[in-house]
Amino acid sequence: MGLARVERMTRGMPESNAISEHRCTLPWSLRAATEDDRAFCWRLHEETMRAYVEATWGWDGPDQRMRFEAAFDPAVVRIVEVNGRAAGWLKVDASGVPVRLLSIAIAPCYQRSGLGTAVIGQVVREAAGWPVWLQVLKVNPARALYERLGFVLIDETPTHWELLRTRVG
Question: Where does the record locate the signal sequence feature (predicted)?
Answer without folding.
Answer: none
